[in-house]
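Hi Y.,

Following your request, here is the sequence exactly as I used it, all 488 residues.
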Amino acid sequence: MRRRLLGSVRSRATLGATLVVAVALVAAGTAVLLSLWSTLSGRASAEAERTAREVAAELAAGQPYDRLSLDDDDRPVQVVTEDGTLVAAGEDLQRISGTGTDAVRPAAAPTAAPVPPGGTSDDDGDTDTGADTDADDGADDDSALRPGEIGEDPAYSDGSATIDGETADYRFASVPVETEDRGTLTVHAGAPLSTERSAVRTALTVMLIGFPLLLAVVAAVTWLVTGRALRPVEGIRREMAAITASADLARRVPEPDTHDEVARLARTTNETLTALETAVERQRRFVADASHELRSPIASLRTQLEVGAAHPELLDVAGAVEDTVRLQNLAADLLLLARLDAGERPADARVDLAALAREEAAGRASVTVDAESVEVAGSRGQLGRVLANLLDNAQRHARSAVTVAVRREGERAVVEVADDGDGVPEADRERVFERFVRLDAARSRDEGGAGLGLAIARDVAVRHGGSLTVGEAPAGGALFELRLPVAR
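Below is the corresponding structure, written out as tokens. Let me know if you'd prefer a different format.
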């Protein structure tokens, strides 16, 4: 049951559509979450940088450590020296990590002494002239900050801090500042990430709840739409199964009132059924007609042989031979038609129709040939059979003369066989090419044949890519026109 379900077009279409939408939703959701986190993280970085720059500005202005605005926003702030010594921090800061300095209580900072003219005061209270400083520092560094200047490019890091008993994650910005009396200081300030992470978690929760619901809706809609689209196909399948079971080729599948692929499938199926019904009916009629045609010469031949066996002096040898020849010709015609129906491809030899027409007309009374050399590709034997059948038919109905003309018209070779008989009525000009058809019902079988000659001629013409039609001859009789493609 599971294999049958997965093997249906409906289930595969539903599964495929659901998987495609699922992949698209996961990709889109991931992109949205990353974009949301990047945006919110950037906002936290900007807030942390703003706080750090505010404290750095106070330090650059010479504000003492104990007067810095470190507790206004309940955010973790540290001020450290170049050697990593914490000199200022928020009063409520209890723990911090991620800034490189884990200290939360500043070391005792000496009070800055007045700076004498031309020198600076060191930590021991001794006065330095500044000459040694120039010697120690060497050449001025273009990238060094000047006194009172704040660094342009802050560094960022993630960490955590505990303020007044509450622990949270923070985004830290580290801003350097150069002071006149305290050297280079670095301000570490943090902005909470709780809002950003809460927003990302909320978006993720919405996606985890909404995506399955959306996929369920997509699967349900695809299942319904596919089922509705395939309903006519199921009707076609059921009808075809019924036709197969009943062998009733007269039945047809339902055609939906649409212009889509399913409607075209139904129409093509009905056309195939029509062609199949026609072929089967034609085969049945052919078998029945062939049996009828074979019965007469066989019965006649049997009667003559039985009479000859009982009374040898009464045996009609000439009649027996004639019936045997007729039976042989009929068998040959039936065999050729069977090969043509089986789709036998003609040979690809080059045949000169003018020479072939003269060859078939040789020895026939009252037949004239006017032909120019035209070559076609095909079977010489089958094309000779076409000309022989057309000449036999023309001589059978002609009063006095039969003419054969061969010429070339563009890329076609044209062969015309005309007689001066009564012609073929316009209503019967297609019917004469049907098998076992005789227009003259009063004509004897011996004179009229089995009615296969013209059918064979047209089938051979079609197999060679040409056509065979009948019209009215200039003398009033029948004009059979054979058209074949010229050999390349």
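The CA atoms of residues 416 and 460 lie 16 Å apart.

Thanks again,
Q.
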